[in-house]
Amino acid sequence: MKQSNFLAFDLGATSGRTLLGTLSEGRVEVEELTRFGNGIIAVNGKYYWNILGLYEHIVEGLTECAKRGIRPDSVGIDTWGVDIVPIGSDGSILGMPRAYRDPYTNGAPEQFFELIPREQVYSKTGIQVMNFNTLFQIYAAVKEGYSPVVQADRLLFMPDALSYMLTGKQICEYTIASTSQCLDPRTQKWDRELLTTAGVKGDILLEPTLPGCVIGKINPTIAAQTGIGEIDVVAVAGHDTASAVMAVPVETENFAYLSSGTWSLMGIETRSPIITEESMRQNFTNEGGVEGTTRFLKNICGMWILEQCRKEWSRQGKEYSYPEIVAMAQSAEPFQCFINPDDDIFANPDSMLAAIETFCAQTGQVAPKSDKQIVRTIFESLALRYRQVLEILESMAPFAIQTLNIIGGGSKNALLNQYTANATGKRVVAGPSEATAIGNIMMQAVGAGVVGSVAEARTIIRNSITTETFTPQNTEAWSEAYSRFIQIYRTDLKQ
């Protein structure tokens, strides 16, 4: 195998990175070239992403790569799901994309279900109902009279919009499209009834393209400005979770994964969607994967709650490093109280610390009194919530789940990984932490024909990384805690 280089832009809700992947002799190595912040911008009560700023950071990443004397074979971009960029008839970006945490979609699903019943929407799409799904964003934007969407000739998802800014070519990549709740996972086509009911024309979204195709070449101006040259921009699995799942280093198709970061996403990879009354009742989702597979999964809150607490503590003059956070949790008393990490109260509160206190009061618990106890409560509650979702997933999976593979940044959290093994009673294998970037890089390699298939890509990944295994400990105490957690969860449901 000759040496090949691929440049990945991995854009998350809080930060983004430029990563260089080098593929040689059956191994892949990843090097971070640049890192930059990303965040939601609030203006007059609306919440936006700075897409022009993200584009500038991509240009900077291309420049840095060129400075190192490396001309990659191609470039690929992945981002979070659901958010859209409105494009005018002349190809102009009509406005900054609204962010999924914008409260304008609060109540939108319930209003939409008055037009098309919830059961029918789910049967059409197999997608977990969440108020920020693209379908409800479009509906809310039209109802609000939000002019960029109302006047749009085309809507592009975030990675496709950024690729368009680099190449001038518009596509709609399948995995990112599948997060929208507008796509039929059986046919991989848009459900035009849903789009027209939301208030837009049925062809406002391009028909999806499977990952691995070449979108086009970087435009000559950027090629010259950065020194990178007119290299290919490839449609990778544009949804970051789809890229991450591609990088799970398994030898079999029968595996469960937990993509752990700001969000946690737990699921399995299947050859066809699972759309049943039970999957609807449990609010599981069917999103697109590589090679036309389905990612049957559920969104769970991840490190979002802790990240927001850390921001508050920082404003109070308390700067906790991550090792300090772990040490704090370890030194705190176990199982003092629990939260439901997926309660709406934690979605985007003005104060996360106050939200935790309120939740505990509403569920008849004594709120944690110290920072270390708060951290412990968050970690334990996440692990117990993982058990809850895994048990539900097992009941619907077409195969037995023996091992839970944790990928993404959260895979480096050894304490939470151990808690997860303890809570679930499953063997936990952690790594790679750079799953999304590796999946992005390897999809480019598959698209270029350097690697023959996703299965071959996973073999290369398995040979290139070191994983860590966690076995269940203290399971009796964790089972007792789980019983208490379930009671709190049920209490919460009644609020």
Question: What does this entry show, briefly?
Answer:
This protein is an alpha+beta fold and 495 residues long.
Secondary-structure map with pairings?
Elements: E1 4-11, E2 15-24, E3 27-37, E4 40-43, E5 46-49, H1 51-67, E6 74-78, E7 84-87, H2 108-112, H3 118-125, H4 134-144, H5 147-150, E8 154-157, H6 158-167, H7 174-177, E9 183-184, E10 189-190, H8 192-198, E11 214-217, H9 220-226, E12 232-234, H10 240-246, E13 256-260, E14 263-270, H11 277-281, E15 285-288, E16 294-301, H12 304-315, H13 322-331, H14 352-362, H15 371-396, E17 403-407, H16 414-424, E18 427-430, H17 435-447, H18 454-464, E19 468-470, H19 475-493
Parallel strand pairs: 1-6, 6-12, 13-17, 17-18
Antiparallel strand pairs: 1-2, 2-3, 4-5, 7-8, 9-10, 11-12, 13-14, 14-16, 15-16, 18-19
Structure description:
The structure is a single chain. The protein has 495 residues and is an alpha+beta fold. The chain folds into two domains: 4-239, Nucleotidyltransferase, domain 5 (2-Layer Sandwich); 248-433 and 465-495, ATPase, nucleotide binding domain (Nucleotidyltransferase, domain 5). Helices cover 40% and strands 20% of the residues. The chain has helices at 51-67, 108-112, 118-125, 134-144, 147-150, 158-167, 174-177, 192-198, 220-226, 240-246, 277-281, 304-315, 322-331, 352-362, 371-396, 414-424, 435-447, 454-464, 475-493, and strands at residues 4-11, 15-24, 27-37, 40-43, 46-49, 74-78, 84-87, 154-157, 183-184, 189-190, 214-217, 232-234, 256-260, 263-270, 285-288, 294-301, 403-407, 427-430, 468-470. The strands form five sheets. It has a seven-stranded mixed β-sheet, with helices on both faces. Strands 3-2-1-6-12-11 form a six-stranded mixed β-sheet, with helices on both faces. A two-stranded antiparallel ribbon has the order 4-5. Helix 15 (371-396) crosses helix 19 (475-493). The longest helix has 26 residues, at 371-396. The protein is globular and about 60 Å long. The model has no long low-confidence stretch (mean pLDDT 96).
